Amino acid sequence: MAAPRISTMRNYRFAILPYRPSDEFKMRDRLRRLVGELRASGWGVLSVSLQRLMLARIRSHGDAVVQSIVRREKACTIKTPGAPSNTSSSSWPR
């Protein structure tokens, strides 16, 4: 995995690190270790899940909006020929 591309500007007290969905579990593990190291060094660390914030925001618009988004997401997913039924190729940037 390539080195993270995180801003080094000191004016920001947060970091947003984009990664591919296939790297999800590796990133969770690395983040958990980094948070532990930072806290052990005396840093205050607050993790904010942008996924939870986004989902809460979408749900706040009601079930009809949620269902509409689900339909659009399903329409954007292209089934990979010959792949197992739970595998698909989505529009995620590579």
Features:
single chain; 94 residues; mainly alpha; two-stranded antiparallel ribbon; 2 strands; extended
Task: Summarize the structure in words.
The protein has a domain at 1-47. The chain has a two-stranded antiparallel sheet with strand order 1-2. The longest helix has 17 residues, at 24-40. It has helices spanning 24-40, 50-59, 63-76, and strands at residues 78-79, 88-89. A hairpin with an 8-residue loop joins strand 1 (78-79) and strand 2. The chain is extended. It is 44% helix and 4% strand. By secondary structure, the chain is mainly alpha-helical.
Proportion of residues in β-strands: under 5%
Q: Summarize the main sheet.
A: 2 strands, antiparallel
User: Low-confidence runs (pLDDT<50, min 5 residues)?
Assistant: 87-94
Mean pLDDT: 79
Total number of strands: 2
**Molecular shape:** extended
User: In whole angstroms, how far apart are the ends?
Assistant: 14 Å
Number of helices: 3
Give the strand order of the largest sheet, numbering strands 1, 2, ... along the chain: 1-2
The radius of gyration computed from the alpha-carbon positions, rounded to a whole number of angstroms, is 18 Å
Share of helix among residues?
Answer: 40-55%
Order of helices and strands: HHHEE
Return the structural class: mainly alpha
